[in-house]
Amino acid sequence: MPKLGVNIDHVATIRQARGGIEPDPVWAAMKAELGGADQITVHLREDRRHILDRDLRLLKETVHVKLNLECACVDEMLTIACDTKPERVCLVPEKREEVTTEGGLDVVANFDRVSDSVKRLHDAGIFVSLFIDPVESQIAASKKLNVEAVELHTGSYADAPTDLDQSRELIVLENASQHVLEHQMILHAGHGLNYLNVTDVADIEGMEELNIGHSIISRAVFVGLEDAVSEMKQLCLR
Length: 238
Ligand SMILES: CC(=O)[C@@H](O)[C@H](O)COP(=O)(O)O
Ligand SMILES: NCC(=O)COP(=O)(O)O
What we know:
The protein is an alpha/beta fold. The chain is 48% helix and 18% strand. The protein contains eleven helices and eight strands. Strand 5, helix 6 and strand 6 form a beta-alpha-beta unit.
């Protein structure tokens, strides 16, 4: 059964809407831990639209479970990652104009850049995963970089317009997961997962970790973050 990484970016999104001090993602991490989070995930974007450098620094000092930093393959972020030393870094693609991460990292097209990034992180002793589309060529390229894990982008599955489309996307994820395991990498998944669609992905053989943010923070508005995390954790463990 997969571990649950809780992405708290959107607590910071609410804070940044007013540019003040609340709600504080550091408090959110504490409540998520109390609800059973196995990991706290944050995406430090180059435009600092939600999580800020200050958040990362404080989270590194206060989070008791694993801290997973999502960031782009750019010098600024790699320097921050190597200085901060979270337990894990997940390299993701990033576009200024996107509302959220739109696709996986194109490891095939950006092989040398991703390779240099992975090397810098490994030299700093950090566990590295790559956020990729569930595509065989991307999985094979990731393996060549010796990363510990890949996180399969579940956006196409989560956003599928019909049940039939969603079943097809689930098969794509299942097949890709099989390739990840055959390549002896650790299997993670995430993006767009929610209380209705998570169980089929959690049930994929060999799934070790799911990173989930938006749906948990949305539910927390109504039930509180600790309960929202706990409910999601039950679905992952069921
Ligand atoms: C990489 C990924 O799928 C997401 O966690 C991503 O970090 C989402 O970014 P936002 O939190 O800015 O939507
Ligand atoms: N890597 C995926 C993640 O951290 C959370 O994505 P979402 O649930 O906010 O879409």
